Amino acid sequence: MEPTFGTSAAPAGELIKDTTTQTFAADVLDASMQVPVIVDFWAPWCGPCKQLTPVLEKLVLAARGAVRLVKMNIDDHPAVAQQLRIQSIPAVFAFKNGQPVDGFMGALPESQVRAFIEKLAGGVGPSPAEELVEAGHAAFEAKDLSAAAQAFAGAIQLEPGLPAAVAGLARCYIESGDFERARQTLGLVRPDAKNDPEITATQAALSLAEKSADAGDVGELLARIEKNPKDHEARFNLALALNAKGDKEGAVDQLLISFEYDRNWNEQAARKQLVEFFDAYGPKDEVTLSGRRRLSSIMFS
């Protein structure tokens, strides 16, 4: 599917730039007479800014010249933010014809940022690299690792360091048991996306896969637990083994049981492993959501 607008990708330097108080008028007000300009007000100490800015950059590049992004560090250049009465960051303002026309505060989910840009510029379709990532995910779900890996690798060639593509290719290697190549692949992510949720989730998945390789036989571990329900080491390894087999609910159950028996065993190893599970599964996974609720119930009971 072709992007909704734009005939070719403009160089990133023309679409995304930093501005100062002195250059703001030219970079934003004057430029917005030709094309809508999004201004990202941020600061180095702002955690949510570090989450939002890569999303803005990704979607602006995908818009292929229909919008531009200008970033302003309010620590170094506070005057414009004060004039706009910005009281919290990240703060995003959209300018058209020299005037602010829309905006939002906080690190919104990518879907909402996309909708914001669509409204501003008339629609943002997936880039060719994003289309390959979608194809890779479909092939991965169908267990066609070869096709998935080819799609993700193709996306990386088009957009080097694209986090979704890097994470997808690394998961292909994890699934095939090639943990070293998975680790090398994760190192390809572009520097500004090292904390991307897909990258951190894949890093957690790699850590789990490496641990699970030495977890032991499920039957033997179950036999040990049957003899001694408080054999925490057996439960811990059973959780890893079950997770490796795709039984996420069973894996979480075993760690919750262990934590409920003795939350301080091995310096709260069960709780720490649960957190790693949740990171690997992702924040929206049903097992993550129910597991976090159950863990909180135990911790605060």
TrEMBL record:
GO molecular function: protein-disulfide reductase activity
TPR repeats: 129-162
Pfam families from the UniProt entry: Thioredoxin (PF00085), TPR_19 (PF14559), TPR_20 (PF14561)
Keyword Cytoplasm: no
GO biological process assignments: cell redox homeostasis; response to stress
GO CC annotations on file: cytosol
Entry keyword annotation includes Transport: yes
InterPro entries: Thioredoxin, Thioredoxin-like_sf, Thioredoxin_CS, Thioredoxin_domain, TPR-like_helical_dom_sf, TPR_rpt
Occurrences of domain Thioredoxin (ranges): 4-122
Family annotation (NCBIfam families): thioredoxin
Protein name: Thioredoxin
Organism annotation: Parvibaculum sedimenti
